[in-house]
Please model this.
Amino acid sequence: MAMVGEGVQFAREVRLVLEAIQATGGEAAGDCRDILGAMPADLPPPRPGPKLKVAGLLDGALGRANGTPLAALARAAAPIIRAAAWFDSPQYRDRGLDPRFFDNYGFVKFMGPGTNLPGRGVAAGFLMLGPDLLYPAHAHPARELYIVLSGTADWQRGEEGFLERRPGDTIVHPSWVRHAMRTRGETLLAMYFWTGDLETSARLLPDA
Ligand SMILES: [Fe+2]
Model:
């Protein structure tokens, strides 16, 4: 049997998940259509680079994705995430966040500016948040789709209260709508997709 490359396998699993979400006809259906239109059949390898401390939580998060609706995607994503550079948000420094925040927050990118797949109008990657952590209210001009791979956590959007989101759940954040996440005892691993303004970073917001 021919070896299927990691990028092909990963792209295939991402497409399957996006198609399934699109087929529900829910809030994220249009996002999935747009993202699928931008997705190649083979995702190039991520750019390697430094790991952040949060990367030490990856294997545990991937392990807990076993048995969830997105286990196959998590398996296909594992080598991609392991090879990737980790980023945080320098604009969040000196903003009075929990001192544990920067040891427990980071993301990798596989599509969009700063990756080997720029110029398709979509930025995508994986966010990880360690246990018992608040990622306070923030916002950005890009529209955002999150798909939870691992870790049940509480997510807050706009004027809504915190809502429990589980592996397999999707969350849409329209442009500039404030959002926050609060993890429980488990690391959160979620895939994100940005469309629209990909160049303007998120900013923290004053407490509502
Ligand atoms: Fe966001």
